[in-house]
Design a protein that fits this description.
Order of helices and strands of chain A: HHHHHHEEEEHHHHHHHHH
Oligomer: heteropentamer
Shape of chain A: globular
Number of domains of chain D: 3
Radius of gyration of chain D: 24 Å
Largest sheet of chain D: 9 strands, mixed
Chains: A mainly alpha (359), B alpha/beta (250), C mainly alpha (288), D alpha/beta (417), E alpha/beta (245)
Number of helices of chain A: 15
CATH topology of the largest domain in chain D: Rossmann fold
Helix content of chain A: over 70%
CATH topology of chain A: ABC transporter involved in vitamin B12 uptake, BtuC
Number of domains of chain A: 1
Strand content of chain D: 15-25%
Number of helices of chain D: 15
Number of strands of chain D: 16
Chain lengths: 359, 250, 288, 417, 245
């Protein structure tokens, strides 16, 4: 019985088949791409994978938990800086990775407690997250004096922190990963985050989170404390963003306060909006598509990428507020239904509420 | 499980005890110093014309509104002004006037969420099947609730309330928008529920009230006008007057 | 003592600056409950209008007080008709759409004019406070801020149009049943808010420099001031500007402008946490 | 039912495979470009051509073009033409590492000239070090970089700031106030000012640091007045921070406290602002457009001829960029090879030439230039040279940087106060 | 369409033909027809959830019509906006009063004058003669009034616009009896003075019968019968309607 309802549930969110095929695809790309692509090509697609993880963090927090976080880049930046500071101080990435995930989570826990337990409305949550990420940017940006150091690491303000060592094999700092290794690590991270979110969404916790997004009052009247669930979802999202930050540093080998900038947060939101709100595949797709678009426009040079991004954002809000993935899903659904009808099993008239309701 | 020591105190405390409860919105007093006591496994009906304060009173019982004054006790504990989820955890469930559901989720998922609050996933899944069966919702269980017809949504909301297994169930107009047959089913269901749980019903349909009620409380202009056995209440001249507006020509 | 005078002058100028950058946003948010994230870019467009006009030889005061509000008001009108009006009542969607407008407008201006900082000569002389001296332009800003708040108050309180605005803001459906077109009222409000933003951008251009990305610097400040102020546009903007402006200027003087700005933002976050409906949502509820 | 599911699955899989194909297609041009351009010598240029730093960056890219065109017109190097591969970092720090990696891994260039802010230099220097591509940083900066793979042709505080401070101490007084951009250039330069002031018996009474997008300087102007310094040194970078000079003038400070700067004028300020704002600000650089030597004149003529109206004010930055490319070309010729070790050895062989700024030589020990510097101030949109200091050594490391003796050294020396 | 029909149409101020509407896909008003003549006082009686408020909201243009036709003096207004309907002469006193809570009583009345070409002061002075209770409160803000006072204000505000027909939605809801009486006499007075046309939706039988000339019974979104005001006092009907014996 349980497996039956689980299957039903999976169907509702795109089906177990879709989960497995996405995983399979990610694995295929992960191991296949290095065979075909040069080191530099790999470097370019690594950032797409990093951005996909970042997009998943936004997609979970916004699309599933309904929290309008406009400052997700704040957690990305915290994770990035935490990794940089830790890995240089310890000379080993083994501890630096968990630190880069946990620090943003702790920060999000404090911030989330402040917001969700303070009865702050959805729109204000947007403004507060945005403001906090601006505060973080300004603070980090003004730490260029040599007095601002953690351990041996000078934070460097606007300069950022250069020459950050990459990940190494666990417990063995003498064996750092090369470009291909970082690609595997990043794709592994993406696969892990995707599966983890899938698992969370299937769990009771995840289902309640989605229910709260659907109707907070109802969830309260049933006895769930929306504040707690939102807080936890927000913290999980921050951890994922932190991981994305850690991998971002590994990709760039360098970190500057730019990661905290509003454009980063804006990008995450656009990824999710374009890909599809309330899906997991959507943010990944959106990240790859938009990041690729930004690179293309950026290289071409005559038009500022912002112009294109702005138009995309407005167009999707106005025309396709649900994003690409749900749009495609609906199209497939419709195609299937049409097929069904053509095959000759007409739906009973009163079975379709759309038909009976509309007169 | 037998308790060797009898618990007389439990008998003495009423399940729900509202004292002097008042709610003001600006210059408007929606609920005006109301006292209401409900015993364990009691069935109570609240009636009264539109705007008499019944729904507002319900909202205070569930924590959606913080009373401007007075006290509400559930099993002896003050719940006035507590968080809705806190009150729900203490065992109060409500079906609101307008169906209030997780519209994007299936009926099954809606009921599951309600059941899973206290139970393990496996147990909750079993409860879902039971409850859906009991309310004849199995056929539409996997449809998105937001796309169901009004009456069906009423039933789904009833199902979620049942799945919560609360000790006190508040039903705000459970029969509204239902067919005659459905109304009868609802009445039977309420009586059945009432064997184990206390129920408060707000309803306008007097046939329905007659069908289920024992004690009826009549609200008028935020106050309790009468509280008595259903037959006496419905025969009461004052009650008739508030419904017909006769007081004005008197 | 002279130094105290100079600092006081700076504080007052800071408050007035905050008022100016907030007021257009306040009108749009207060009246329509639209969180206009493109506000900073409307200011930027005002500043650009001003700089282009003055470079074309038009008198700077005419550019600031006539051309910039006019041009940006019309741009606001166009944006409202083509984008915003489809999103009324969907607060998060308007946030996203206006953010898109913000990114897009910046990109557009970068594409057309390049991402450079342009400067505008300061038209006002300096004056002395005892041994110290400062720019008289601060007084211009104070005068414009007071004038803008005053006129807005008069418009809302004393005119029929203001009455209609307030009524439509409270109950648009009922206003429609009395024969008013809420759609037109919203359109006018958005244009008014945009025009005020345009003027603010132009007024501040001589001291801030003009660049396509300048809007970002204003948007968070304007926001927290609006939200901190609460529902009452004039009183709220005034009070919140006083609080935040004073903190910003004093901490900036004591520590550094960055710390000042951070202190101000932190105060705002805490304030919004304590009074989610802002100062005037908690106190002075019936003010304008 | 299962039939439909299979159909659905099939279709989705197809969709996803096409996505993979798209990703690999995206990376494909990498091979193509590598295959095509093996004949040319590749010179990488990485610079802020747009954005708030473009006033400095764009002329430097133009100079690079001019220098490359000149070399190509003269037959190229080693009989091969030079291909300039240029990336615009749009005044955005993240783009530096991205494009540096592209230059190193994809384009596989033979040399890189570029980097504007010291922050950008520090971000990309390790990348070229790892990739073993000689790197030229041609911007004036805070000094002290000591790295075998890196050559710095711009002036340093030991060649300029010392003269500014001397000028201030002699003509204005013992107290100064520093306003600087908030990153390593501003911070370290401020420390140099502190050091030179102390050495001359003066002191720095206050120092404020500003983010690059800072536009409002009113609180600082008040603070400066409250500490009453004899002069102010500005180390303000980029378009936004130049707003300070106007606010300074409109606050009526221009006539009260004199200004000295080692960056003012690099963003075309003397043309974009009115002379009343700019006149009399004392600066110190390795070159001014008004310098009356044949090399200088012909450089200005060539630039004006090639870029005409597109040219927005020239400065030391252009001359040192030109120097950097000429030194590299000279070294390649001398080494008769593009091999990194051979080119580095040639660069360390004591090269010198007569550049627009006068005689310049490349110091083998520090990889910096020994050149003349000048004290100058704007008057009515023209630079007036006030004083000339010949043969200034890049002595910022106090003799500790000797890459000939110790080639494995890789650090930045900063002033010890 | 023959000439006779045309004439008949014009005699009726408001004509509703086979009207359908609802929320989303849930139909509430289900093919409903009636008409109101100039100067007529028509009541609509119906239980909760029978579609009374939905009907008025549809007539006022807040809800889209999914079928049928609404005409004002022969002009088809089915597709018109709320504003246009107000300009066509429909006045509306909604359920819950909807006074502007932050505006003073006087400002609320001034808003009511928007469609009235007469000078504001004159209009308000005249209306206030019918609502003496409001005179004392002119400076007070709407939100601070009691429910009954708000109801009077909403009525007065509507009258300021000199509508040709007034839609009244459950004016007695939650109102103390003294004010209900005051409303009846006020409405009668104004009705007499201005030949007012009223469409009144109510559950309060007494109020309904006191003001209406004829009463339409609304059940499940349809008009099921029409009765006279006198019949509304019939115990049998009361039994049927209220369900009490």
């Amino acid at each position: 019985m349980t497996s039956h309802s689980l299957g039903r549930f999976l169907d509702q969110y795109g089906g177990a088949g879709s989960f497995l095929s996405v995983c399979l695809l990610l694995i295929l790309v992960m191991f296949g791409l290095p065979l075909f692509v040069s080191t530099f090509g790999l470097l370019q697609v690594t950032i797409l994978a990093v951005m996909s993880i970042f997009a998943l963090s936004q997609g979970f927090v916004w699309g599933f938990a309904g929290i309008m976080s406009f400052g997700q880049a704040g957690f990305l930046g915290l994770g990035a800086y935490a990794y940089a500071v830790a890995v240089i101080n310890y000379g080993d990435s083994t501890l630096a990775v968990p630190i880069s995930i946990i620090l943003p989570m702790l920060f999000a826990a404090v911030m989330g407690y402040f917001m969700f337990y303070g009865r702050i409305s959805d729109a204000y949550v947007g403004v507060i997250t945005l403001t906090v990420s601006v505060i973080l940017f300004q603070l980090i940006n003004s730490t260029s004096g040599s007095q601002y150091r953690i351990g041996v690491v000078e934070l460097g303000g606007f300069n950022g922190i250069p020459a950050i060592p990459p990940l190494n094999l666990i417990g063995d700092p003498s064996r750092p990963l090369d470009q291909t290794g970082i690609w595997y690590a990043t794709m592994g991270g993406l696969l892990l985050v995707y599966s983890l979110l899938r698992f969370i969404l299937m769990s009771r916790f995840g289902r309640v989170v989605v229910a709260i997004r659907e109707n907070e009052t109802r969830a309260q009247l049933i006895g769930y404390d929306p504040r707690l669930f939102k807080l936890l979802a927000f913290v999980i999202g921050a951890g994922i963003a932190g991981l994305a930050g850690c991998l971002y540093v590994n990709w760039a080998g360098y970190i500057s306060p730019g990661v905290f900038a509003l454009t980063m947060s804006a990008q995450a939101i656009i990824f999710v909006l374009v890909g599809g709100l309330g899906t997991l595949l959507g943010p990944i797709l959106g990240a790859v598509l938009i990041q690729w678009l930004i690179n293309t426009i950026g290289d071409q040079g005559t038009v500022d990428p912002g112009l294109g991004l702005g138009i995309i954002l407005v167009a999707f809000v106005l025309l396709f507020p649900k994003g690409i993935v749900p749009l495609v899903q609906a199209a497939i659904q419709q195609a299937l239904t049409l097929r069904k009808r053509n095959v000759g099993s007409p739906l009973p008239v009163d079975a379709d509420p759309l038909q009976s309701g509309a007169e | 499980m037998t308790n060797p020591i009898p618990a007389p105190a439990k008998k003495l405390t009423p399940l729900l005890e509202a004292r002097d409860v008042t709610m003001k919105f600006g210059g408007v007093t929606a609920v005006d110093h109301v006292d209401l006591v409900l015993n364990e496994v009691e069935l109570r009906c609240l009636i009264g014309p539109n705007g008499a304060g019944k729904s507002t009173f319900f909202k205070m019982l569930t924590g959606q509104l913080r009373p401007s004054g007075g006290s509400i006790r559930f099993r002896g504990n003050e719940i006035g002004g507590a968080h809705p989820h806190d009150i729900a955890r203490r065992g109060v469930g409500i079906k609101t006037q307008v169906p209030n559901l997780f519209d994007g989720l299936s009926a099954r998922e809606n009921v599951f969420i309600a059941a899973a609050r206290r139970k393990s996933v496996a147990r909750a899944t079993a409860i879902v099947v039971e409850v859906l069966e009991r309310l004849h919702l199995t056929d539409i269980a996997d449809r998105e609730v937001g796309r169901l017809a009004h009456g069906q949504r009423q039933w789904v909301e009833l199902a979620t309330v049942l799945a919560q297994e609360p000790e006190l169930i508040l039903l705000d107009e459970p029969a509204a928008g239902m067919t005659k047959a459905e109304v009868e089913q609802t009445a039977q269901l309420i009586l059945e529920i009432n064997r184990t749980q206390a129920v408060v019903v707000v309803e306008h349909d007097m046939q329905f009230i007659r069908r289920i009620a024992k004690v009826v409380t009549v609200f008028n202009q935020g106050k309790i006008l009468v509280e008595d056995h259903v037959d006496r209440v419905l025969a009461d001249e004052r009650v008739r007057n508030v419904y017909l507006g006769n007081s004005i020509s008197a | 003592m002279d130094l105290a005078g100079l600092i006081a002058f700076n504080v007052v100028t800071g408050i007035a600056t905050l008022c100016l950058i907030t007021i257009g946003l306040g009108v749009i948010y207060g009246m329509m409950r639209i969180i206009n994230l493109a506000h900073g870019e409307l200011m930027m467009l005002g500043a650009f209008t001003c700089i282009i006009a003055t470079e074309a030889g038009i008198n700077i005061w005419i550019s600031i007080f006539v051309l910039s509000p006019l041009v940006v008001g019309i741009i606001g009108l166009v944006l409202e008709r083509t984008i915003i009006r489809f999103l009324y009542g969907r607060i998060l969607d308007t946030m996203l759409a206006t953010w898109g407008m913000s990114i897009g407008l910046t990109g557009l201006i970068v594409t057309v004019f390049g991402n450079n900082v342009r400067t505008l000569a300061n038209p006002a002389p300096s004056f002395g406070i005892g041994a110290y001296s400062t720019s008289l332009y601060g007084l211009v800003i104070v005068a414009v801020a007071v004038g803008a708040l005053g006129s807005l108050f008069a418009l809302l309180r004393l005119t029929k149009f203001g009455l209609i605005l307030r009524a439509t803001m409270e109950r648009p459906g009922m206003a429609a049943a009395l024969g008013i077109k809420p759609d037109t009222v919203y359109m006018a409000t958005f244009a008014l808010g945009s025009a005020l933003a345009g003027m603010a951008g132009a007024v501040l251009a001589p001291i801030s420099g003009v660049s396509p990305v300048m809007g970002v610097a204003y948007i968070t400040r304007a926001f927290i001031t609006v939200l901190g102020g609460g529902a009452a546009i004039v009183t709220g903007t005034g009070l919140a500007s006083m609080l935040f402006g004073t903190i910003d200027e004093l901490v900036s003087f004591k520590a550094s402008p960055v710390i000042g700005s951070v202190a101000m933002l932190m105060t705002a976050v805490v304030l919004i946490r304590i009074f989610p409906t802002g100062i005037t949502g908690r106190f002075l509820r019936r003010s304008l | 039912m299962s039939d439909h599911n299979q159909k659905l699955f099939g279709r989705r899989t197809v969709l996803k495979f096409s996505a993979t194909a798209a990703i690999s297609a995206l990376a494909a041009p990498a091979y193509l470009r590598q295959a095509l351009a093996s004949e040319t010598i590749k010179l990488g240029c990485i610079m802020d051509e747009t954005g708030p730093l473009s006033l400095e960056g764009k002329p430097m890219v133009q100079t690079t073009k001019l220098a490359v065109d000149e070399l190509n017109a003269a037959g190229g190097l080693l009989g091969r033409q030079i291909e300039m591969i240029s990336y615009d970092t749009q005044s955005t720090m993240q783009l530096y590492t991205q494009y540096a990696q592209r230059l190193a891994l994809q384009d596989k260039v033979d040399v890189v000239h570029g980097g504007l802010t010291s922050a950008s230099r520090e971000a990309i220097r390790p990348i070229f070090g790892r990739a073993q591509i000689p790197y030229f940083y041609n911007t004036l900066y805070e000094g002290g970089v000591c790295d075998r793979n890196t050559f710095c042709t711009g002036t340093t505080p030991a060649q300029t700031v010392n003269h500014l401070v001397e000028h201030g101490l002699k003509n204005w007084g013992k107290k100064t106030y520093v306003l600087a951009a908030d990153y390593n250039f501003g911070q370290i330069t401020t420390d140099w000012v502190r050091k030179f002031m102390a050495a001359g018996g003066g002191s720095v009474v206050g120092a404020d640091f500003f983010p690059l997008d800072a536009t409002n300087f009113s609180s600082t102007i008040s603070r400066i007045q409250s500490t009453a310094p004899d002069f102010v040194v500005t180390v303000l970078v980029g378009g936004a921070q130049t707003g300070f000079y106007q606010q300074w003038e409109s606050a009526g400070m221009k006539s009260k406290i004199p200004l000295a700067s080692n960056v003012f004028g690099l963003s075309n300020e003397i043309n974009s602002m009115s002379p009343s704002t700019t006149d009399g600000i004392v600066t110190c650089y390795g070159w001014y457009p008004g310098i009356d030597t044949p090399a200088s004149k012909s450089f200005v003529e060539k630039m004006e001829k090639q870029f005409g109206g597109d040219l927005t004010g020239m400065s030391e930055l252009d001359v040192t960029t030109y120097d950097g490319i000429m030194f590299w070309a000279q070294a390649v010729k001398k080494a008769a090879s593009l091999d990194r070790e051979a080119v580095l050895a040639a660069l360390e062989s004591g090269l010198s030439y007569d550049g627009p700024g006068g005689a310049v030589s490349l110091d083998p020990a520090t990889h910096h230039t020994i050149r003349s510097t000048y004290l100058g101030q704007p008057k009515d949109r023209k630079w007036q040279v006030m004083e000339t200091f010949a043969h200034q050594s890049p002595n910022d490391s106090g003799g500790q940087c000797d890459l000939k003796a110790n080639p494995r050294l890789n650090k930045q020396f900063t002033p010890v106060i | 369409m023959n000439g006779e029909n045309c004439f008949a149409d014009q005699a009726k101020l408001l004509r509703v033909t086979n009207l359908r509407s609802g929320y989303g896909r849930i139909p509430i008003v289900n093919g409903l027809s009636f008409s109101v003549g100039e100067g007529e006082l028509v009541g609509i009686l119906g239980h909760n959830g029978m579609g009374k408020t939905t009907l008025l909201r549809t007539l006022m243009g807040y809800l889209p019509t999914s079928g049928g036709r609404i005409e004002m003096s022969g002009m088809d207004i089915t597709q018109r906006s709320t504003t246009q309907r107000a300009r066509a002469g429909i006045g509306y006193v909604p359920q819950g009063r909807e006074v502007f809570p932050g505006l003073s009583v006087l400002e609320n009345l001034r808003m009511g004058c928007f469609l009235n070409a007469e000078p504001e002061n004159k209009v308000i002075d005249e209306i206030l003669t019918f609502f003496p209770r409001l005179k004392a409160y002119l400076g007070r803000i709407g939100g601070a009034l009691s429910g009954g006072e708000q109801q009077l204000l909403a009525l007065a505000r509507c009258m300021c616009g000199a509508p040709r027909i007034v839609l009244l939605d459950e004016p007695t809801e939650g109102i103390q009896p003294s004010i209900i009486e005051e409303m009846i006499s006020t409405l009668r007075d104004i009705g007499k003075a201005r030949n007012l046309t009223i469409l009144l939706v109510e559950q309060n039988l007494n109020f309904l019968s006191a003001l209406s000339q004829r009463i339409l019974v609304l059940q499940k979104g349809m008009i099921t019968s029409e009765i006279s005001a006198e019949t509304a006092r019939d115990p049998a009907l009361i039994h049927d309607f209220v369900g009490m014996a």
